[in-house]
Amino acid sequence: MEEAAALLKQKGLKVTPQRLAILNLLRNTKEHPTAETIYKKLASDFPTMSLATVYKTLEVLKNMGLIQELNVGEGSFRYDANTNSHPHVVCISCGKVEDLDESLLKDVLDEISQHTDYKLVEQKLYFYGYCPACQHKLNN
Amino acid sequence: MEEAAALLKQKGLKVTPQRLAILNLLRNTKEHPTAETIYKKLASDFPTMSLATVYKTLEVLKNMGLIQELNVGEGSFRYDANTNSHPHVVCISCGKVEDLDESLLKDVLDEISQHTDYKLVEQKLYFYGYCPACQHKLNN
DNA sequence: GTGAATGCAAATCATTTGCACTCTT
DNA sequence: AAGAGTGCAAATGATTTGCATTCAC
Fold first, then answer.
1. pLDDT per residue as tens digits for the range B1-29
2. Cβ(A8)–Cβ(A15) under 8 Å?
3. Searching chain A, which residue's CA lies closest to the CA of residue B69?
4. Contact A130 B118 (CB under 8 A)
5. Which residues of A touch chain B, with CB atoms under 8 Å apart?
6. Are B139 and B103 in contact (CB under 8 A)?
7. Residue A57, CA: closest nucleotide via C1'?
8. B89 vs B97: CA distance, rounded Å
9. Binding residues for Zn(2+), per the UniProt record (chains A, B) (predicted)?
10. How many angstroms separate the CA atoms of A33 and A83, rounded?
11. What is the pLDDT of residues B68-117, one digit of tens each?
């Protein structure tokens, strides 16, 4: 696991405390937070940081390939420091978003490629259902 | 192909000219238009119709299961009168969005189900690449 | 006639932008 | 010192909401 600071430098980006905080937060969570969520989580450590900075930073990190943007069908984007193309599962009861293993993609992609005349370069796969915890709740 | 009017009635909805126009437009296109696009296309026939009505109507039709909402990762939603869960391909050059065959889903779903403890009920699969026309353009 | 649907304008929400100021390099 | 990055406030764009009017039933 490389240092966030090193990653920023490699990309020729200035290493600011805000960027470090945002990148590290994303690298240490599995929650796929939105810009708003990131902003709130960092508010205590960076009381002067503005939401605009969060958005600008996310934009930069995305363009540099350090994070990816998800759109699960809500009104807003979520962010993921795992930049491998991997499927996601969304719990339609509690809203949680989890990763699925990247390896599941290979076969899918092969099959789709054979059935379209598009030259595919990327994909976003979202599955919706009930997470184990919510399945329990609903059965009571 | 059932009549749009009949579909609305079946769902207990009042049959208004605006609803008919919107539903028919969606049922007769493969373009996956946004609310804005729908509004513009109908502007000549319904000069007094407001964008708010388009949004309200889309909301109702979606809730009744007569159309589905797509989110290809743009800033806005697109709508599709094909309510079967089917994958979509997006051309990253011209922005076109096309349907893929529903049958491609079965295997995908089976495989994913085996690898997650979520109880899946739905999915949204978006593939991104270059459509045949754009492949040509780019090769010149 | 009655309640649901429409149309307008105002409101909201996520995201973006402009610009002066402040840091990293 | 120079330019990139930040923070604020204002702008934008998509979508939603409130409410009076109109229309489908």
1. 468 999 999 999 999 999 999 999 999 99
2. yes
3. A73
4. yes
5. 69, 71, 73, 87, 89, 91-92, 98, 100-101, 104, 107-108, 111-112, 115-132, 135
6. no
7. D5
8. 6
9. 91, 94, 131, 134
10. 15
11. 999 998 889 999 999 988 999 999 999 999 999 988 888 888 889 999 99
Angstrom distance, A60 CA to D2 C1': 21
**Closest CA relative to residue B33, chosen from B73, B81, B86:** B81
Q: What's the one-letter identity of residue A93?
A: S
In chain A, alpha helices (H):
4-10, 17-27, 35-43, 51-63, 103-114, 132-138
Q: How many CB atoms lie within 10 A of CB B78?
A: 20
CA gap B60, B56 in Å, rounded:
6
In B, minimum Cα distance to A135 occurs at B119
| Whole-Å CA distances, B64 to B4, B5, B12 | 13, 14, 10
Question: For B11 and D25, how far is CA from C1' in angstroms?
Answer: 15
Q: Which nucleotides of D are covered by protein (CB under 7 A)?
A: 4-10, 13-18, 23-25
Q: Which of B91, B93, B112 to mutate to test the interface with A (most CBs of A within 10 A)?
A: B112
Evaluate if residue A107 carries a pLDDT over 90. Answer: no
Structure tokens at B78: 């697109």
How many C-beta neighbours within 10 Å does residue B57 have?
22
pTM here is 0.90
Query: Residue A80 belongs to what H/E stretch?
Result: strand A78-80
